[in-house]
Each structure stands twice: as structure tokens, then as C-alpha cells.
Design brief:
The chain is built from four helices and five strands; from the N terminus they run αβββαβαβα. Strands 3-2-1-4-5 form a five-stranded mixed beta sheet. It is rod-shaped. This is Biopolymer transport protein ExbD/TolR.
Length: 129
């Protein structure tokens, strides 16, 4: 009589896989909440196929032309630029509202360049994602 040879099946290390997936979930939950929240009534301009970074400190421009920096209203471009530290004056990031007229945005960029900014970066919806 021949004996049947039993094949031993090797179990997958599912506990280790579950731990890794859980750690990734926690990482993305924490990483998604690190950036400073923008004003809730602001609707961003949408663009596609642009590379971008999350805005560290930006000048927020609302549809009515009102400006805010770090949650506080800004009276003028000159006051905003003068209040910035020296190391942050070269590149200025602007987050415009979707309904802000393009003429207003272009004039704002010109004022920032005239104040001394070497580069004005417009942050859009795609750049924040």
C-alpha cells in the first residue's frame, strides 16, 4: 500500500502585511494634515499637468481683491512685502481665488516685482494636490 504524500502549505505572513498597510494608512493621514489650511471661502484656480509644492507661506488673494497672509488681512502689497523676512522676499507665492480677475492678478504680480520680488509664483489647485 502506497502512502499519500501530504504537501505542506506554507502560510503567508498576513499579519506583517496588515501591519505595513496600517502604518502606511497612518502615515498618509498624518502627512495630509500637516499643511496650513487655507481660507474656507476660497475657490482655487484649476490647472492640469503642473508640478507643484504645497504652499508654505503664501499671499492669499480673494475674489474681491482682499489679501491675507497667514490668516491675517494685508493692507497693501508694500506692507506685505516689507513685513516678510529678508530670506523670504526673493520668491513670493500667491494663491488667487478662482473668481479673481486676471487683470487684478497681473497687476498684483507687477506690484510685487516692483517691491523687490525676483519671482512671483501663482499656486493653483493642481499644485496643492
Amino acid at each position: 500500500m502506497m502512502r499519500r504524500h501530504r504537501h505542506s502549505t506554507r502560510r503567508e505572513p498576513t499579519i506583517a502585511l496588515i501591519n505595513i498597510v496600517f502604518l502606511m494608512l497612518v502615515f498618509f493621514m498624518v502627512a495630509g494634515t500637516l499643511s496650513r489650511p487655507l481660507d474656507s471661502d476660497l475657490r482655487l484656480v484649476r490647472t492640469a499637468d503642473l508640478e507643484g509644492r504645497a504652499p508654505p507661506d503664501t499671499l492669499v488673494v480673494h475674489a474681491d481683491g482682499r489679501m491675507a497672509y497667514r490668516g491675517k488681512d494685508v493692507a497693501s502689497v508694500k506692507a506685505f512685502y516689507a513685513a516678510r523676512p529678508e530670506e523670504e522676499r526673493e520668491i513670493v507665492r500667491v494663491v488667487p481665488d478662482e473668481a479673481l480677475p486676471a487683470v487684478t492678478l497681473v497687476n498684483l504680480a507687477r506690484e510685487l516685482r516692483a517691491a523687490g520680488a525676483s519671482s512671483v509664483v501663482i499656486v493653483t489647485q493642481r499644485g496643492l494636490e
